[in-house]
Amino acid sequence: MQLVWFAVNIFFVGSLIVMLFVHRSFSEAKQQGSAPERLQRLGRFRNAMFALTLILFVAMSASFLANMRLNG
């Protein structure tokens, strides 16, 4: 069970880092007045990364709690 938690944790941290970079790209593009289609694409990607990160956070929390329940 520790291996499951560790793997999910690695993916969560990776997706969190990517989400922060995507958010930064979106913010900079918005601030510079980029093309609307680019802003839409970056916005959709940012929202998708946010959703993925949130799902991985819930999975990481659940696997951590299951691991603690099994190992005391």
Polypeptide structure, described:
There is one protein chain. The chain is mainly α. The protein has helices at residues 2-32, 36-71. The radius of gyration is 16 Å and the shape is rod-shaped. It starts with a helix and ends with a helix. The mean pLDDT is 96.
Relevant terms:
72 residues, mainly alpha, 2 helices, 93% helix, 0% strand, rod-shaped
Explain the layout of strands and helices.
Elements: H1 2-32, H2 36-71
Helix pairs in contact: 1-2
Summarize the structure.
The protein is an all-alpha fold and 72 residues long. Helices cover 93% and strands 0% of the residues.
H/E topology pattern: HH
Instruction: Give the class from helix and strand content and strand pairing.
Output: mainly alpha
Per DSSP E runs of 2 or more residues, the count of β-strands stands at 0
How much helical structure, as a percent, in the residues?
Answer: over 70%
Total helices: the number is: 2
Poorly predicted residue ranges: none
Gross morphology is rod-shaped
Strand content: under 5%
Mean pLDDT: 96
Distance between the first and last residues' Cα = 12 Å
Instruction: Please outline the major beta sheet.
Output: none
Query: How much is the radius of gyration in Å?
Result: 16 Å
